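Long-time lurker. I teach an intro course on protein structure, and each term I like to show students one example going from raw sequence to a predicted 3D structure in token notation. This year I'd like something fresh instead of my usual example. Would anyone be willing to generate the tokens for the chain below so I can use it in lecture? Attribution to the forum is fine with me.
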Amino acid sequence: METKKNPLVAFVESCLRGCGQVMFQNNPITGFLFFAGIFYNSWELGVCAVLGTAASTLTAMILGADKGMIRAGLFGFNGTLAGIALPFYLAFGPGLLVYVVVNAALTTILMNAAAQFLGKWGVPALTAPFVLATWVLMFCTAGFGFPEAGPLLAAAVPDPHAVVQAGSLSGALLADGVTKGVGEVMFQDNMVTGIIFVVAILVNSRISAAFAVFGSLVGLLTAWVMQAPATPLQLGIYGYNSVLCAIAMGGLFYYLNGWTFIYATFCVIIGSIATGSIAVMLSPLGMPALTGPFVLVTWIFMFAGKGFDRIAEVPGDRLGTPEENLRHAS
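-- Reply from a regular --
Happy to contribute to a lecture. Here you go:
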């Protein structure tokens, strides 16, 4: 007979799993290490990450959402990102903490709506609730006095005839870009934080950790081949969406084999290109791409994958780590 957990302990565990689920890791230790990595880089972002995760999880509990989804952290990870994004792009202050709670709570509403709609096709919501909620709450900065937009939300009209100084590839750029690409999934421009994140994923899945590094590397190299400037390459800007694409497609939602590896690699490459495209599209509005490129590209590849015989989708009720999925397939 299973012993009933203390409600506070269960809530904390759900929040830790929620943070881990940002990179598809249903593991409280992974979530704890993710939080630790964020606090290592910035206590403000760390506080807002915890607050966002707790607010989205608590909203799901108050509204009576599916208990299994709450326990697995599936209502927490969008709140984690929603919590970090606001102080990253907006002026930090006590009032912003209330805004973080509102943003995180909204992700829970959107998560349930997306789950009801996309669940009919067996496609996950991914981080779409975070992207939509955060865009809504950040767009209003142009019309309201609060919240105050930060310097990163400056509108700019792209010049198609501008000369782009392509970055040169070096060992230092690769080391910075690959590790920061993993860190930038949660807005962390810090090499050590990126390494902590990789270790955190490794705690739960060696395959997912390998795909996270692979995704960041391929995303960086794709942007370098496309002659991206050195600064965004070094900051991991073209890697973080590819990190999420790689983990999602690399043995998580599809059984891993040679064909799915090729399919996942192509998804990673397109994820990097889409990051640049969507960033340019949104720049006149002064809005960031966030994880929108990952969501759009992964949805396309997942819907398309249902019609390809050479790649096999993992049934929704059997989703686990890539290692567990491989054992089930054999």
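Some talking points for your students: DSSP finds 15 helices and no strands in the chain. The longest helix spans residues 94-118.
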